[in-house]
Amino acid sequence: MKVSIFYSFIFFVSLVSQQAHAGDDCAIATAHPEATAAGCKVLRNGGNAFDAAIAVTAALSVVEPYSSGLGGGGFYLLHVADSDRDVFIDAREVAPERVSESMYLNAAGKAVPQRSREGPLAAAIPGIPAAIKHLSKYYAKLPVAFDLQPAIMLARNGFSVDPRYVRAVGWVEKRIRKFALAERIFFNQGEPYKVGEILRQPELAETLEVMAEDLDSFYHGEIAEEMVNHVISSGGNWTRKDLQNYEVKEREAVNIDFSGAKIITAPLPSSGGLVMAQVFNILEDWSYYNHDNIARSHLMVEAMRRGYNDRARFMGDPGFSNAPVKQLMSLEYARKRGQSISLDSATDSDSLPTVFDLSLEGEETTHFSIVDDDGNRVAATLSINGPFGSGMVAGNTGILLNNHMDDFSIGIGSGNAYELVGNRANGIEPGKRPLSSMSPTFVESEKGVLAIGTPGGSRIISMVMLSILEYLDPIDVDPSAVVSLARYHHQYLPDRVQVEPNGFDEAWIFELRRKGHDVQVYHRKWGNMQAVHCDLSQTKCSVLNDPRGLAGVVF
Ligand code: DON
């Protein structure tokens, strides 16, 4: 397979550069060169894309501890070439048994955001270790000990700290310092690490070694015991049973036909697939590509407004609440929803059906895409939610715990980290998975095959959709534009078009405002998209790294 690197890593100096070219002959896009190198090593040694996914997952838990890890969850979308089958592995965290709807509210019934974002009560039961086991047992070729080896080395010998690590620590320094174990690991003898310094995680190395011997140790053995003891003694609510009961779920991926292409993406408990289905159906009905640039953007904003409105109204863990999935996927429904769109003016979000409460999201997460020589594919988005998750490390395991309880609707009229609106469908219940926006996606069309995804909380869905719209534009586009193009976003409430800085000209902003949109240019870009694009024969693939991530950092 021939691979070209659109964003080559020539920018890297420091230790990271030694791995820079590891990706040259393998179709792996990740947020970190060390994780890419881990995946490539496994591919070169006879592993398939699923082995590489295990290696990348484990390596990311070491080198991007602020984004994802063994203490978090995620979704893996697989294409199994042999059987020409798509499989969606739901490794989302679940709420422990000892939770209640009001656990994050104060006496006045108001949400106390800190409780769902920080420390032991913020952490749901992790899913990533179960995903590793599942991938290894049913899809991978090599022993899991081999796939975990690069991560073990990175944790034991250390990795070179990069600017994204430094930035993430800067965001949540206070939170990490509240937890002595986390402070010891993620600070350099009390001082923030500097770019190029080596960060070692011996406890995590040991945990990975124990898992390499016995994957069940995470939920049933010594790792489980240590985590539960630490969570309980810190005031948390986990039990051994919560861990024993955890299981990944294989779900049917959402399939959407749009503009002659097939889009394969995330089902509930990710809202991604259902929001995308409605948006793409509305756009198809409005013949999106027949309009000029301004009208396209306006139509897209209006379609997002409606799709995210339904996210808020109906969506949650399908094991607990019944979203009208068939209806939300149907063309007739989208047509009805799209009828109220005017090409001249913005809809007022308040005119759409209301929901009860606000819920918001965190700031880091990770995505990777892999294609192997046999045509197996993986798109995976993994997260511990906010930067460094709950901030808490579970005892001597070196595992940083997520704060994904915050992705539930926490309380009526309250907000958490981002500005998404939620409903009872996403209320807190024991054993339930919090609603997600993570959307690992494949696109199959006459242009080829694209594996794509990104972090970015509620904006994940809009980012993936904008990239797909660009990619499928009947006018040929350079595939690298798919990850670099400027982003805008609308999520129903707050009723505004969020725009990346320096991405859109004055005329675009003026015209959208003239239609009545509240266009707000943000101070910072968002997302870190990692995609692999292959031609139809899948003999030539391109690795596409978002220039907003490490691929675009000069250090
Ligand atoms: O599951 C979700 O949708 C979020 N917890 C993901 C968080 C995220 O992407 C933060 N990233 N920048």
User: DSSP helix count?
Assistant: 18
Largest sheet descriptor: 7 strands, mixed
Helix content: 25-40%
Q: Could you tell me the number of beta strands? A: 22
What is the strand arrangement across the widest sheet? 1-22-21-17-16-11-10
Query: How many angstroms does the end-to-end distance come to?
Result: 31 Å
Q: Cα-atom Rg, whole angstroms?
A: 22 Å
What hetero molecules are in the model?
Answer: 6-diazenyl-5-OXO-L-norleucine
> Uncertain runs with pLDDT below 50, 5 residues or more?
5-23, 356-363
Structural class of the secondary elements?
alpha+beta
Plain-language structure description:
- The chain is of the alpha+beta class and 555 residues long.
- The protein has two domains: 33-249 and 363-426, no CATH class; 251-345 and 438-550, Gamma-glutamyltranspeptidase, small (S) subunit (Glutamine Phosphoribosylpyrophosphate, subunit 1, domain 1, 4-Layer Sandwich).
- The protein is 34% helix and 16% strand.
- The chain is built from 18 helices and 22 strands.
- A hairpin with a 4-residue loop joins β3 (73-80) and β4.
- The longest helix is centred in the middle third of the chain and has 22 residues, at 293-314.
- It is globular and about 60 Å long.
- It starts with a strand and ends in a 10-residue tail after the last strand.
- Residues 5-23 and 356-363 have low confidence and may be disordered.
- The structure holds 6-diazenyl-5-OXO-L-norleucine (DON).
- Residues 361-365, 383, 385, 404, 407, 436-438, 455-457, 460 line the site of 6-diazenyl-5-OXO-L-norleucine.
